[in-house]
Amino acid sequence: MESREVKLQRFLLKGNEARMKGNAQQALTYYEESLKLDSCFVDALNNSGTIHFNQRHFEEALAYYDRALACNPQYWPLYFNRANTYYELKEYYNSLQDLQAVGRVKPDTFPLHFTEGLVQTKLRTFDKAQLSFENALRLSPENAEVLVNLATVFYYQKDLRRANELLAKAIAINPDLSNAYTTLALVQIEQDLLDEAFLTVNKALAINKNDAYALNNRGYIYLLKKDLPKAFDDINASILLDPYNAWAYRNKGIYYLMMNDGENAIRLLEQAKTMDSFVEAIEEYLAKARQLKK
């Protein structure tokens, strides 16, 4: 006769095996069987949350992480998982609270500082974002992803020189990092170097033809060049690949604004604002669209 502990571990192992094979639904079934035996089986709750997180079912993921933490509030990896979930749900202050809980236990953990940098960037607290990314670099000095995100902070602050320097370093470390070229293209657009930006964003797409951000940025370049059909195609392709990028909806709104279609411009710009209120120049474009509709 198997003990409860043996049954729990058997269901957990079967769930993990199914998960490794890409069968998420079967994995969830095994985890649920274990939870019938022990509703506080933290491993099963955590793994179920991670499956839902990877499927972008963030509310479901949050519910599992909440349950797990109610069972074991001392298990610090759960705070990190929940912080990432809050980040995706745009609950940035809740994300920071959980990251602070991680920091009390593991203050020198690279993912802690990197994720803090991402959250602070979203909150537009750029001095804190810079500090967090610099702490991450202290732990991983040759990490190109951190360099790109730190460059993004400088881009938002219009410190284009420092952004360029960091992106050049990131590309030297990893010339196959598509988002380094995508971000560099934004810097070049800001410098009104549209031809250079076009070449740069195409480097990103040569590395990854399905880079939704690169496609959206190229679409924006086409808008600036007033090549509206190509802009429309790239922006739509970007939205199909990633329907959660507010910047793409902003750019599609700009497209309709340039087509003198105020109604659709307002609809898309309002959608972009709802998705991310920090999207640049959104109010400026909305004002033009409302004026057009009068």
Secondary structure topology:
Layout: H1 4-20, H2 24-37, H3 42-54, H4 58-71, H5 76-88, H6 92-105, H7 110-122, H8 126-139, H9 144-156, H10 160-173, H11 178-190, H12 194-207, H13 212-224, H14 228-241, H15 246-258, H16 262-275, H17 282-293
Helix pairs in contact: 1-2, 1-3, 2-3, 3-4, 4-5, 5-6, 6-7, 7-8, 7-9, 8-9, 9-10, 9-11, 10-11, 11-12, 11-13, 12-13, 13-14, 13-15, 14-15, 15-16, 15-17, 16-17
Fill in the keyword field for this structure.
294 residues; mainly alpha; Serine Threonine Protein Phosphatase 5, Tetratricopeptide repeat; globular
CATH domain class of the domain at 1-98: Mainly Alpha
Please give the largest β-sheet: none
> SS-based structural class?
mainly alpha
> What sequence of helices (H) and strands (E) makes up the elements?
HHHHHHHHHHHHHHHHH
How many beta-strand elements?
0
Total DSSP helices:
17
